[in-house]
Each structure stands twice: as C-alpha cells, then as structure tokens.
Amino acid sequence: MTQALYAILAILIFGLLVGIHELGHFTVAKLFGVRVQEFALGMGPAIWKKQGRETLYALRAVPFGGYCMMGEDEASDDPRAFPNQAPWKRALILFAGAFMNFLLGLFIVIILYTGAYAFRTSEIVDFMPGCPYESAEGLHKGDRFYKIDGRRIFMQFDVDDFLAQGDGVYDIVVLRDGKKVTLRDFSMQPLPYEGQSQNMYGFYLGYELNAPGVLLRNAWETCMEFGRWIFMGLSELIHGKVGMEQVSGPVGIVDIMAETGEAAETAGAALYDIFYLTSFIAVNLAIMNLLPLPALDGGRIFLLIVTWLIESVTHKKLNPKYEGYIHAAGMVLLLGLMAVIMFHDILRLFTK
What we know:
Pdz3 Domain, alpha+beta, four-stranded antiparallel beta sheet, globular
C-alpha cells in the first residue's frame, strides 16, 4: 500500500470512531424512547439524507465529526424530548458515546491479540545466580509485581519502566499466594551478572500461554495502559512539559496512521500497527469526551448533576437554555482550539 491509501484508510477509521460514538448516544436514546431529530456522520453540507419516521439520517461532506441531535439545550413540552427525561437517563445517553468508543478499543485489542501464542507477565519465574533481592524479606519466585511506588502494573514492560524512573528505593506491592505483600523502602539497583553485557536487576519475568481468560485480561490491561498514557499526556500538557504544537487533531492523527502503515515491513504488519493505534485513539476519545469541560459529554454530565442538585434544593426546574449558553461558549472555545491544533497539524505536513 502507498501512504495515500493508508491515509484514506485512516480517514475511514476516523469516521468509524466518530460513528460508533454517535451510535452509542443514538442507541440508548432510542431505547429510552427519546426523540432524536437527526443522526449525522460527518459535518458540513449533506451528501446523502433520508427522513425516517421521526429521525433524519444524514451523511455529510467533511468526514471528521458527527452528531446525534436531540434538542439537548431547548425547552420543550414534548415528554419525549431529551431535557424532559430523568437525570439518570440523560446521563446514560451522554455516557453511551464514550462507552462505545472504549468498547470498540477493547474489541480491536481482543481481535489483535487472538493470534498471539503467549503473553509476557510481571511474574518472577527465576533469579540469576547471586541475586541479592531474593530473600525471605525480599522478592520470592512466583511473586507478581502489582504496584511500584503506587503505580499499578498493567503490562510487563511497566516493571522495567517504573524501576528505571525511580531512585533505587521503592515501595513495591507483589501478589504472593493470592495476597498482596508490600515491600516498603526496598532498595534495588541494576547489578553486573556473569554472562550479561549490561547491569540487570537479576530476576526473570515469565509468560503465559494464550487462552480466553488470559486474552481478555491482557486486552483489558492494555486499554488500562492506554488510559494511563492519556492521563500522563494531559498532565504533561497542563504542567507545560509539552506544548500545543505537539498535540494532534484529526489531520495529524490521519498523518500518523499513514506514516505508521508506511513504516511497517509488510501490509499485514501495517494493518496490525494501524488498528493497534486505532484502539489507542478509541480509548483516548472515550476519556477525552468524559472530561468535565463545556461542550463535551463529560461537561454535560457534570452540569446535569449540578442542575439536578440545584433543582432538588430549590424545587424549581431550570431553563435548559442557560446550560445551552455555557455549552455554546465551550463549543466556540473548543472550535478555536481545534483550529489551532489543525494549523499545527498542517504546518507539520509541509515542514517535515
């Protein structure tokens, strides 16, 4: 495949991610009997439209985006209108989009891992001769690393990464005989061992053969790892360790996917890498959409809770237009942010 074909595939995948998200809102809304005015994939002018019994279905020209229009910010006398539903129903409808994105990411990882023969684990299966960390008060054969300095171990490489990031003294939690055992202020440094070209910690981590339960657990923990990467990235952005020019939007993501496919040695490896990246992006979209910011689903859920608390105290129903003003302002800011990100994405395309 050429990079152009990978770019087209990436655009289709991005459309799928958005479509799955909006389908989550649409499906739960329909299950609750909420009136949906329009279900659209893409933004901009419609290239295809079909009027259903009560919902307009549309495919629009710009493949980035989409929406499930339910009149969220409009006062209505219609008992089936979104604002007139119970708060828990509205919350579930809003949450469903992110849930579907996460579910898609998990499903893709499960499919990708199906062909794996085995998975690396964080369980200590043996020690190198003379390893000082094997002791009654220290590590045991059969221990499975669970946490290092408070950070959960999801994947085997977390062990090496978290040890490398430490100062040589760790709070380590291991699973031993089905129980959590904590080793506080445990000193551990890489040491020279006979026959090894570099210093090592002196223990060997094992693997487990693929089986349904093993596959599901590893797929789940991979998605948890994705989530941690996303929160780490947000933390670095907030603390100024990375700049806005390093954040990618739809254009940048499509370019990254195309480059990922082009860099692979075979078409099969390219598809594997692209769909692995897709699963990460799906989890990313799920988490980002649940941030409590106006115009995002998380912001709507947050304001829904605030509105419910106010109405419970005052016993007066608030006009949804005021919440609409907040989300409208948030949308303007969000669109401005997306414009800045897109500018940097396009600039990178012409300067790389």
